[in-house]
Amino acid sequence: MNVRANKLLLLLSSLATLALLGFSAYRENVLEEWRVIQRRYARELPPDAAAEFNVQLRQIVAPALDVTDRCVSCHVGMAPGEQGIKTDRLFAKHRDVVHDPADLGCTTCHGGQGRATEKDAAHGDIEFWPEPMIPARYSYAGCGRCHTHLAVPNLDGVARGRDLLERYDCLACHKLEGRGGTLRPGGAGGMEGPDLSRVGAKGIDPSWYDKHEAARDAALAAPTTGAAVAAASSAPATPTASPAAWKASFSDIGAEDRAQIEVFLSSRFGAPELIESKALFHSLGCRGCHKLSGVGGDDGPDLTKEGLIDPGRRAFSHVPGKRTVANWLAAHFRAPSVVMPGSAMPEFGLDERSIDRLVFYMLSLRHNDLPEKFLPDDRALADRFGKREFAADGATLYGSFCAACHGPSGEGMRYPGMTAFPAIGNRDFLAVASDDFLRATITHGRVGRRMPAWGETSGGLHGDEIETVVGYLRTLGGDTAFEGDDKPPRWVVADARRGGELYAAACASCHGASGEGKEGPALSNAQLLASATDTYLVRTIGRGRRGTAMLGFTRGSTVREALSEPDIESIVAFVRTWEKHR
Amino acid sequence: MANSRTDKLRRGALEWITASQLYRSIFRHGYDDTVRNRALEVTSNAFLHLHPITIPHHAIKVRFTYCLGGLTFFMFLVETVTGVLLMFYYRPVTEYAYADMKTLQYAVYFGMVLRNLHRWGAHLMVVLVMLHMLRVFLTGSYRPPREFNWVLGVNLLVLTLLLSFTGYLLPWDQLAFWAVTVGTNMAAATPFFGAEGPFHGLLGVDGTNDARFLLLGDVRVGGSALLRFYVLHCVALPLVAGVLMVVHFWRVRKDGGISRPL
Amino acid sequence: MKQPGETRITSERPVAQAFGAMPTGRPGDVAVFPYLVYIEFLAALLFSIVLLVWSLTVDAPLLQEANPGVTENPAKAPWYFVGLQELLVYFDPWIAGVMIPTLIIVGLMAIPYLDTSTNAVGRYTIRERRLVISHFGFGFALWWILIFIGQFLRGPNWHIYWPWQDWSMVKSAEATLWDFPWWVGLPALIAYFGGPLFLAQKRWPWLLERLGMTRYVGAVTLALLFYGVPIKMLLRLLFNVKYVLVTQWFNV
After folding, report:
1. What is the distance between the alpha carbons of residues C177 and A390, in angstroms, rounded to a whole number?
2. pLDDT tens sequence across A51-71
3. Are A1 and C32 in contact (CB under 8 A)?
């Protein structure tokens, strides 16, 4: 009970408390990361600008988007009104973009945690922030938050469109994604055509070709530059150039190529990498299992918001490298069932470049609610009017929905642990399959098997789209047409009992004793039996499918005897008995 | 000689200060360490007057009380001060609550330190109040005539837990949301009054009129639960706790002061 | 004229002497100011330092924004209620979440009315209060043990995970549980609550004598209810018993 000692302790502990409070104030006012950074910025500024610069918290606020972005507290050069410092990456000005960061904020496009003022937290690389920044390499994935780019062709379509532009020398006058726009040597004077890099955003003038032709004719008729300009002034959107340039660079374009060019140009939004990734997605048949905004199969998870999934809720235990969403996605594409045990997704054996593109596209799938004011036209058209994100041509539709299972050119696929997928591009198949049969199969699918129903109410495809796919299937088999069939759908009258014996001997080993399917497809399937005519069955058994395990039975081989026409019919009669049981 | 000179100077200054009207208007006792002043310093001070003038010698041993009761009260004061400051930045609305936490963390001066003080202080307070109860039990201080003060103490313990629990929801993060969901689901299991408890059918109790609904103002944790918890946390429970504390402290004196061996 | 108590205290004189003239002073008492007040302020300041250092070094947790659509697994109550949540393993919610907390509160408040002895007040002694302190200490310890288990050893789906085990490891469900049939459970319960009332009176006749009937029954019942908790836990852990008594309205 030493009062003097206690008094001293009181003094010391009071001082210690004060010191801690003082330290806290010091940390708050001096040591904070963004203050240190802003002081550095002020030092690097020219003296007159530095004098006006205050170290203070900076932010961009957009209440309608729920944006409070303090990113500009460190990236000071990107703050509205700041001049930035070119030589310093941290302080550089934002490059010119279509959307003003002062209106939309930073996180709207880039992700991350706008309210945070410390680097890791702001970039979203912390444990409990669901939306980390999109890595700079995939920046354009941010477009996906608001935009739904429409009518994107498959990868072939994109490549072909690009080729056509080269072939027809369009880049002589037009610029595309930083290339072209240089008139050929010898083309004196003239004008550049408009930049085509984002021509898809506004939609393409349907009369562009006519206008080109008219301008060329006018230019050739009046060999002075002034006249060409005058001709242009009557049609503002008309490209103009010197007659020599017109002569050298513009030639007639066939209707088919024109259509292809239009498809390609419609997909130019100023984000070529993103579109290319989306095109790849619509070439690999991903929608066969995955839904996006209501269109696609149900076997895999819905991907509409895949890019927004909280990294904290992804299992990283089998992902090598850093715990980033991009790494997770890439590892997942390499070996789905390793990253997500129990995943039914097969390994597609994609090359690294394709994997990188798919990662890019997945990161762009961040379909969030948007205030009406910010809803872009493409998104509104897609969400409200059912406009498609994929182009309407057969190749793109097939690439979007069918390619993963039936193979890129209809050759069928085999994945470990799954029954083989039929080769629907097979000539023998296409010759015996009527359009009605194909249409019915696509629309109603095969319940109980992998093939989902693609009709309006299930997979979400419109009738005309299914029609296009049917047409495209024919081209896969080298334009194989249906042979025709003048018999009614059911005409076989034969001894089903004998058929049963023959089936057990010849068919059961592949198709299963009761038609449940083994190596070969299931035959007892209700949809198959309902849509297949007797002619279809008889011909298929008789001729088989070249290039598959199904051999034609009208010709024998060393291991089995040939079947006669009545034998085959009796087998069909037996197969039909499965239908009656149901 | 020099010593006595400074001593003289010091005494002169002290006398001048203590004789001033300002000093005498605030303090009703002299500065000198006299027996009388020691008594007056306690009785004439609003904050100290809950104390007696003298206490048993054993009671100022730290190893008797470990200051647990006093520290619990001190934590309550810390929570009140930091809590009031936090209230300036916090809106109990689901649209804003979480964003306000982020603002506190990243943009408010001392925001994070304040929140840390409040949160860790709350943990400390719960631990301290439990240890205080243990101390009172081990020293037999609940025995007559101090029974009722023990009862008040148990109530204060419960209030401390409720204060902490209601505050738990306010950050409106996943931790808060699911902890409170788990906690309030217990209310639904109340016999007779909970929608999932035994005998709830007898009173016609379902999800929309049971005990959990009373707590949440809804069938699940949402905006009205946030508001209810906020009002309970910031107003209702502190008021009740404050009143009970006043009685608790007062009864310590009235029940014979701090417990002493006979 | 000098008043009593005006003497200036110049050194550490014996306290009793300093307060000899004070009407409130008892022999051996000390002045609250400065002795107690200094200690109080010291304690407060030391805790301020602890709390400040803690707050400056460790940030309070803040997870993702609340999302009713994403369930946390496990969803844990605040740590001081985790003990009750842990009891959910052994009891139905209406017991673990409502009856037990209510009984804890009521039981705590009842303590001074059941233990009315005025012996051993104001000092630490285990020897003289062995019975009371051992019961209370057991309860206090159980509370903290349950909190420890719930807070640190429970993982997804409330399975036991040791601190060094990865939560992504899937744990299988525990062994199948069984219930007592009612013709075992009901007599067992009656015997459990009735038996000791008589046995304790036989064994320690002075208990009833000292406490009187009401207090005796109250004390024994509360003690039995309290010990029912660990007993039920042991039944579950050792013999996989889910319910002791199954009725159509509730299960115990």
Report:
1. 55
2. 989 999 999 999 888 899 999
3. no
Distance in angstroms (rounded) separating the CA atoms of residues B132 and C61: 27
On the question of pLDDT at B98 being above 60, the answer is: yes
Place of tokens 């024919």: A474
d(CA A563, CA A440): 30
Q: Which domains does chain B have, with CATH numbers?
A: 1-49 (no CATH), 69-254 (1.20.810.10)
Tokens coding A11: 């003094």
Partner residue facing B57 (CB), from C28, C39, C70: C28
Q: For the residues of C54-99, what is the DSSP string, one character each?
A: HHHHSPPP--SBP-TTS--SS-PPPHHHHHHHHHTTTS-HIIIIII
For chain C, give every domain's residue range: 8-57, 82-239
Report which DSSP code applies to A425. T
SS3 content of chain C, % helix, strand, coil (to 5): 60, 5, 35
Count of beta carbons in the 10 Å neighbourhood of residue A335? 13
pLDDT, residue C11, reads 47
Which residue, among B71, B33, B63, has the nearest Cα to C33 in the 3D structure? B33
Report chain A residues whose CB lies below 8 A from the CB of C51: none
Q: How far is CA C94 from the centre of its chain?
A: 19
Alpha-carbon dihedral angle through residues C11, C13, C17, C21, given to the nearest 10 degrees: 20
Smallest CA-to-CA distance from B72 within A281, C113, C40 is with C40
Per CB-CB distance under 8 Å, the chain C contacts of B15 are: none
Question: What's the CA gap between B122 and B233, in Å, rounded?
Answer: 12
Single-letter residue type at A443: T
Residue type, A250: F
Distance CA A226, CA A240 (A): 10
Among the ranges given (A211-225, A530-544, C103-117), the one the predictor scored with the smallest mean pLDDT: A211-225
Indicate yes or no: CB of B54 within 8 angstroms of CB of C123: no
DSSP state of C235: H
The answer to whether residues C200 and C220 touch, using CB atoms and an 8 Å cutoff, is yes
Phi, psi angles (nearest 5°) of residue A67: -110, 125
Nearest by Cα to A126 from A261, A324, A306: A324
Max mean pLDDT range (A168-177, A221-230, C99-108):
C99-108
pLDDT in tens, B21-45: 999 999 988 888 888 888 899 999 9
Structure-block tokens of residue B168: 């738990």
CA distances A286 to A31, A272, A397, Å, are: 50, 20, 11
pLDDT classification of A484: cutoffs 50, 70, 90 = confident
Query: What is the separation of C-alpha B200 from the centre of its chain, rounded to a whole number of angstroms?
Result: 36
Q: What is the ipTM of this complex?
A: 0.91
Q: Do A57 and B107 touch (CB under 8 A)?
A: yes
Give the tokens for residue A30.
């001096």
What is the rounded CA–CA span in Å between residue A214 and residue B14? 106
Window 226-245 of B: residues touching C by CB (8 A cutoff) are none
Contact C109 B151 (CB under 8 A): yes
DSSP A194: P
As a whole number of angstroms, the distance between CA A413 and CA A406 comes to 6
pLDDT score, position C99: 94
Dump pLDDT digits (tens) for A295-345.
Answer: 999 889 999 999 999 898 888 888 998 889 999 999 999 999 999 888 889
Segment A16-37 mean pLDDT:
95
Helix axes C79-87, C100-114, angle to 10 degrees: 100
Of C34, C45, C65, the CB nearest to A13: C45
pLDDT tens for residues B138-196?
A: 999 999 899 999 999 999 999 999 999 999 999 999 999 999 999 999 999 999 999 88
